[in-house]
Amino acid sequence: MMVTCATCGKEYNRAPAYIQKNGRNFCSRHCAETYTGKPFSGQYGGKPTKKKVVQSVAGSLEVGKQYSLRDIITKCQQSPGRYKFTASEMAQLLYHFCDDMVSIGHNVWMRQEVPA
Questions:
Q1: Is 31 in contact with 11 (CB distance < 8 Å)?
Q2: Is residue 54 part of a domain?
Q3: Low-confidence winner among 38-52, 68-82, 90-104 (lowest mean pLDDT)
Q4: Is residue 55 part of a domain?
Q5: Alpha carbons 94 and 60: distance in angstroms, whole number
Q6: pTM of the predicted model, to two decimals?
Q7: Any idea what the CATH number is for the domain that residue 65 is in?
Q8: Domain match, 61 and 13 both
Q9: What is the pLDDT of residues 36-64, one digit of tens each?
Q10: Residue 42 covered by a domain
């Protein structure tokens, strides 16, 4: 179906399933950004994912110092994104995505130096 861009007025072809019912159809991201006044950045619109928050916090921890899982969760919840984490979810994220973090006991983690 032919639709008209809400910003520039350009007519373009769009599948019926992708036509917005509110009439705000855009031919490009640039036109959508111009219309809303907000730039689109990244898959989640600029909000960091839980994985990125955990990687950032884990990377800022002191090497060789022990941290309780609760302390790491608190630091992550204070970071941009303001996500809530359960203990099991945090342990899984640390285990799978932070190569320099090792579990040294029940709910105790330590950052170690990763050999190059």
A1: no
A2: yes
A3: 38-52
A4: yes
A5: 13
A6: 0.60
A7: 1.10.10
A8: no
A9: 776 666 655 667 789 999 999 999 999 99
A10: no
Domain enclosing residue 79, as ranges: 50-111
Q: Shortest CA distance to 49 belongs to which of 91, 97, 109?
A: 97
**Residue carrying structure tokens 């036109």:** 31
> Both 31 and 55 in a single domain?
no
CA distance 14 to 106: 55
Q: How many helices (H) and strands (E) does the chain have?
A: 4, 5
Q: Rounded to whole angstroms, how far apart are CA atoms 108 and 5? A: 55
- Please report the DSSP string for 35-59 in residue order: HHS----TTTTTPPPHHHHHHHHHH
Place of tokens 């599948």: 15
- Asked if the structure places residue 43 within a domain, the reply is no
Our count of domains for the chain comes to 2
The answer to whether 40 and 63 have CB atoms below 8 angstroms apart is: no
* HSE of 93, CA atoms in CB hemisphere, 13 A: 21
If asked whether residues 32 and 57 sit together in one domain, one would say no
Beta strands in the chain (DSSP E): 2-4, 11-13, 66-68, 101-105, 108-111
